[in-house]
Amino acid sequence: MTEQPTSFDRPHTGPEPADARGALLRTSEPVQAPGAPALPLQSRQGDTPPCPATPRPPADSGGGPLVAGSEHSQSGSAEPGAHRPRPVPEGIPAQPDAATRAAVPQGAGPDPESGDADTPADVVAEAARAATDAPSTAGTPAEQARHAGREAREQAGPQTPVQPLAQGQAQAQAQPDRRKDRSGQKAGAGEQRRGAAQAPPPGGQERRTGQGVPFGRPMPMRRDGDRLRFVGAATRRIARGMDLDEIVMGLCRATVPTFSDAILVYLREPLPVGDERPVGPLVLRLRRTDRIPDERDTEGVYVPPPVPEQPAELSVVTNELCEVRPGSALGEVLRGVRPVFTDTEPARAALDELLGEDSELAVPDGRRTILAPLRGRRRVIGAALFLRRPERLAFEPDDLLVAAQLATHSALGIDKAVLYGREAYIADELQRTMLPETLPRPTGVRLASRYLPAAETARVGGDWYDAIPLPGSRVALVVGDVMGHSMTSAAIMGQLRTTAQTLAGLDLPPQEVLHHLDEQAQRLGTDRMATCLYAVYDPVSHRITIANAGHPPPVLLHLGGEAEVLRVPPGAPIGVGGVDFEAVELDAPAGATLLLYTDGLVESRLRDVWTGIEQLREKLAATAQLTGPDHPPPLEALCDDVLDMLGPGDRDDDIALLAARFDGIAPSDVAYWFLDPEDSAPGRARRLARRALDRWGLEELTDSVELLVSEVVTNAVRYATRPVTLRLLRTDVLRCEVGDDVGQLPRLRQARATDEGGRGLYLVNKLARRWGATRLSTGKVVWFELNRG
């Protein structure tokens, strides 16, 4: 069929369709203009033509009632050359003729306060229907419905009257306003569709069930897409948790109030870790509860709720412990793994067992409670209880799948959190074991330390520090850094620290200690690299000997407030092999503070090592100015101030910090002699000790000191080939040291009744506060201490 061409300039006496794509007119019958022949009703081929006497009831398509017949369909009786009206472009409403405009009542128009305003096309169609149906309002049911709609519009209130436009004006305004009207109509239709989809059900009732939805209650999920989106968002929130409390809180916050009004989470006590087989009965402990609060914020004004005489539903705390007996109803539900409604008798019995017989929790009837077991990788680790209030819609069967997904993700997350907690505990214990639990209190020096891991997720590292007492009231200060931040680095650090302690006990020079550490690192592996700084402080001579193996140099804070970076040969790192280490001896004045640290304190991605060392020196000098030139800053506060220099981006490595305050021992508190290895040496030693005690005012210790000095010197003279040394130190205790050139250490043993010797060390052990023997590179030293009056 060939369509007759038309032109925009050709005048039309009758109304044109409002939709350019062939939409149905809103009138039940075509509107006929005066003097124009009426178009016959048209239908598609094969359809039954509608009867003119019985118009078809309008169908709701979201845009108003539709009339039968399409402008693209042809009837069998239509003339071949009959003219068919050309559709008007979208957005230009059909203009009524004079008779139709006269039939429009005054004041008819859209309600400015209503959200459903009629378009001009709706007004024209309504006027046409009014003109057509004016003779009789009591006709077919469709006509009665149209008449009722008109009466409802008239009762809605005053409306804006439609301003009639001349046909020429309408055609003149059609072209420039076409695009704007089309966009406006599309936007308006989209807003109406979105408003209809998002608006609450009419009358505050749920559409499918007709039950009321209280203000502030979430609408139930009615589509599978809503459930999938909720499960996705809830599982993402649960997966964000790292520890146990975060995961349980994520489950509670994700489900309340979207899925349920309250939730109770029970976990096994204690929680099994990994493949551990639990011992003892299954006991569930209430870990967390969450619910919708009773009070509401209405329009920004807080209205306090009335205080109820009885506890509100879902707000009563139940018993916290529940022992699951084998073969009980709760045990069977937990074994089944799947979530269940509590509307059946076995599930209700399991719920009563979980909450306790004396529980005051008001559980709603019907399918408003879901009991979901929490099963991890190996076994059930708990249960979750989802509850809804009576005024809310009950759970649906598909909600069991939602509860199963939430329970599965939560249980697996809890399993991972428990494993992570065990690993973190092992890492903490390993790091705590590798580092000294407490620092010693050697004579003439005070110590303080700090250790910070690189991050919370990397609790172990290769940094370590140590303070080792040495013979002669000396102390060895050690700080080192093994490459890496793993368990392997921590294990290597532990072996190197143990080796350093053993070498320090041999009283080797600092450079020899580093040489042996280098050999030990090569034995551990070819890629075992570490830096270390080893220093020995002598409080009697006020000197310190330092050897360095690729470590940052120490900083010395003097009593006057000056901070100095000590010039120490850097050396090569431990593990390189084939290198020599050099030691330097420096002054250590009384009142000065030596700071040993690892590179994590001074180096980061934001600054290089030497910039960080300079900042550290300035920080120490600024801290010393706060206490004045005559008073050094407290050690603990000084360590805290040093760590405060770290910024937000400066924690790229773990940090070990060791601070030593040099008090020293005054020369007047030291007495030192050489004794020839002869029989008269013990008597001379007693006389020298008596004179020193008289000079110090410690006469009450004379008898004990003479007896013990005589026994120790006698043993030394018996085997020595070179002169024996005797030294007395007066500090908070009285310390006596006897040295010889024999490397064999004495051992305490029980002398028999017939033995002539072997009782000297027994007397020392009984009378002295402490005693010991230390092997030196040139022999040994036997020492003992006595409390001062």
From TrEMBL:
Comp. bias regions, Pro residues: 49-58
Keywords linked to the UniProt accession: Hydrolase
Chain segments annotated as transmembrane: none
The organism's place on the tree of life at top rank: Bacteria
Extent of Basic and acidic residues compositional bias: 144-154
Pfam families named among the record's database cross-references: HATPase_c_2 (PF13581), SpoIIE (PF07228)
Protein name: SpoIIE family protein phosphatase
